[in-house]
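Let us practice reading a record.
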Amino acid sequence: NVVYNILGAFFALFSFAMVIPFLRLLFDNQDVVLEPMEFELSTAYLIHTLNYYMGQIMVTRDAAGALALVSILVVVFSLLKNGFLFVANFVLAPIRAFVVRDLRNEVYKKVLRLPLSYYNEARKGDVISLISSDVQEIEASLLTSLNMLFRNPITIIIFLGILFSISFKLTLFVLLILPLTGVLIGRIGRNLRKTTFRGQMRLGDLMAMMEETLTGLRIIKAFNGEKRMTEGFARTNHAFALILRKVVRRRYLASPISEVIATMVLMVIMAYGGSLVLSGSDVLSGESLIFYMMIFSQIIPPAKEFSTAWINIQKGLASVDRVDRLLLADDKIVERPDAIETDEFKESIEFRNVSFKYEKEYVLKDISFTIKKGQTIALVGKSGSGKSTLVDLLPRFMDTTSGEVLIDGIPVTDYKIKSLRSLMGIVSQQSILFNDTFKNNIAFGSKGEVTDERVINAAMVANAHEFIVETEEGYEHGVGESGGKLSGGQKQRISIARAVMANPPVLILDEATSALDTESERLVQDAIIKLMQNRTSVVIAHRLSTIKHADLILVIDEGEIVERGTHDELIRNSKGLYKKLHSLQMF
């Protein structure tokens, strides 16, 4: 890229440099130079050499023919210049495209690596804005300016070298004025970066509001909240527009400032250089001044582009700062370099003096219990008591603040994360389905060969086969975004079928039957009980009737185990929390 830009700058210089000597010979009727000059790095050599070749053209051709030939040469040099600049851009194009691709991939992988606790603080819309708007801004503002940063300094340096060779004193005088442009552009750039950062934050707020609106559209309509939501969106959008106005105004300020200063400098060159020529000084001749001004005029466009590119880069760096904050966010769930593989669960799961807190408040306090292989453990308690947080520690969605979780006597932090999670199948309280077919949703994350027979068997166990085959395309039928084409009970059963398909030794069922009607709940519960045979299961449920078969029930209140035992044992404690919860549900 650099080589092509240098060649482009060279031919740009040469196409202009050859015109002045030719016009001098053609119209001033000065003697034709018949002898070439020995090589030296100076403007005098360049002008003398061009005069020599122009003279040869005029000797061998008439004036009209010579003018036509030189005109053709100027066009050829211009074509060569633009051809090399095109090749430079062509070479840079895949760099731009693939840098953006790799950056977007890294952001997406980071989103997957971050612990669930990170998203308790971060807004989903802001994360979406990062991977879409901010990465796009980096491509548009930063990478688009890369070629300007490659090409323009090369052009400016080459042309400055020529200017120094023409008149060292005049060029030095010019360079004393030019830093003024750099100071002004630099100040604009710093302010623009800060303003753009605030703008991208506001855009993240807009994306978050859009995500919340689409997720809660049913509630918004049900409670006639359209006006309130519209007003809130309009306020945020107006705040973003005000920031965007500042960004646009400051970005457009760079080019006029650099052009005005360049024009002022050009006038200084005309005045100062002209005075040298009129005084008869040997420092600068008339043709050299014209040549100097032509070359300097060619510095103005790349200088303007460079200042604009610098402003755009500052704008893009605001998005880089935001993306960087995500990429540098603490993963927290880090796999040890010497982590071990495991493909089977042998004996037990133990929670040993486990405590966990988000910020300062403890959600779990000194939890200890053991689950033997094949047992079913049920977690019961009021909403917000810490049940879901407790089971999230098992697959390392989060890590304990103190204490440890062990599988077969080995801390879960000693296992490879992928290996650890392959031991578990999860049916969450909120049924998560992807915008894909029934088959692919059921087979998501499944180990081994995915066959139609395995998928159908899993669906039958989860009581999902019947409604799947009633659709037009059966198992190849799409479920819609987030399973939007299905009822709550149907989505829940597909989630259960996915856990069945994974065939894990450990099952985590978080409110697994809460979205099913009475008949479906009975059928699915029977299937789950059969599936749990010889498996280890952790069940979270508000419906106590679904966990009577559990080997051990842990009653959790405010992050502590307040009761433990079987259903029959706990129901006999008339003052216990389990008995109160059971009585409320019976009522």
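A brief commentary: The chain has a mean pLDDT of 78.
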